Amino acid sequence: MDYGQLFRRSWDIVWQNKYLFILGFLAALGAGGNAGSGFNYNFPSSSTSSTSPFPPDFVDEVTGFWSQYGGLILGLICFFIILGIVFWLIRLAAQGGLIEAVDRIETGEKMSFGAAFSAGVARIGGLIGLHLLINLPFIIFGLIFSVVGGSFFMTALRQGGEISEAMGGTFAILAVCGGLVGCLLVPVGIIVQIVYPFAQRGLLLQQLGVMDSIRHGWQVVRSNIGDVILLIIAFLVIGFLFGLVTAVFTIPLAFLAVGPFIQDAIQGNEISFGMTEIGTLAFGGICLGLVGAAVNSVLTAYRSATVTLAYQHFLEKQA
Fold first, then answer.
1. Quick check: 208 and 202 in contact, CB under 8 A?
2. Which range has the top average pLDDT, 36-50, 58-72, 125-139?
3. Cα–Cα–Cα angle for 170, 150, 192, rounded to 5 degrees
4. Based on C-alpha coordinates, what's the Rg of the chain?
């Protein structure tokens, strides 16, 4: 594969069809929002029957805050869940539109933003099924982790912050098992991230079903593993450079959102979380997501075009 020609041709397609940047922006909406939490509880072996992992005043503060703002917080959670689902669907349709547009442009067809996005919307059902099926182990693991962790936290609050040794030991065992399963899922996640783009192109460009597209994506990767690894290395470098550019825009906004809290913490002032603070954090998070998507739109469109052209090359070589 002529990598120089591949990257030049991908950039030419994106630059000459600038609506692909808009699709790239939509495809980057809400992406990269992963967050992780770690829990480390110590359960001393003593004669007491229970212990509290929370500070003495923590339970009272949380209970009072929840009684005052609980309904509004639940409403905001539902709103952001619905907003996240909408962003996810838009992102999938835009990803499909990028793939369809680059493929048709390379064959000499004329494409527009509306035609490309409509092509992605037309296959949204298959894209949803592919995304859910290929990520099913991680979805199940995330749900179990959330339910177990949330149940432990709520139970401890209902008991006034006190947890029994039996309950603490059970949670510790579950946490260890969850950590082991999480470690096992790391290599699976790497494989999924490599196969998924080619499975998407099999679904869209070869009109395959969901299961067949996953098998097809795996076959493409396995047959061209050397070229795929070189592409991954190249985009790791490009992604690092774009990450630096993104940081230049997002760090100032992040500081504006959380700066007052950091200042209060440095000065030793009491940090309060009222509706003003929650609204500030929520607004800051939305702004950060939009700015990050705008900057990453270039990388998203360019990377999608490159992978689509590489996919076409792999099929031609196989034929």
1. yes
2. 125-139
3. 90
4. 24
DSSP state of 45: -
pLDDT score, position 252: 72
Query: Could you tell me if 157 and 62 are in contact, meaning their C-beta atoms sit under 8 angstroms apart?
Result: yes
Between 271 and 116, where is the model more confident? 116
Look at residues 136, 138, 127, 51 and name the one whose alpha carbon lies nearest to residue 91: 127
- Tell me the two tokens of residue 286: 């939305």
In the block, which residue shows the tokens 């003495």? 56
- Angle formed by the axes of helices 165-205 and 124-134, to 10°? 140
> Is the Cβ–Cβ distance between 307 and 201 less than 8 Å?
yes
Report how far residue 105's alpha carbon sits from residue 77's, in angstroms, rounded to the nearest whole number. 41
Domain boundaries of the chain, sorted by first residue: 3-318
3-state helix, strand, coil in the chain (%, to 5): 80, 0, 20
Q: What does 58-82 look like in DSSP terms, one character per residue? A: HHHHHHHHHHHHHHHHHHHHHHHHH
196 close to 134: Cβ distance less than 8 angstroms: yes
Give me the residues paired with residue 211 across strands: none
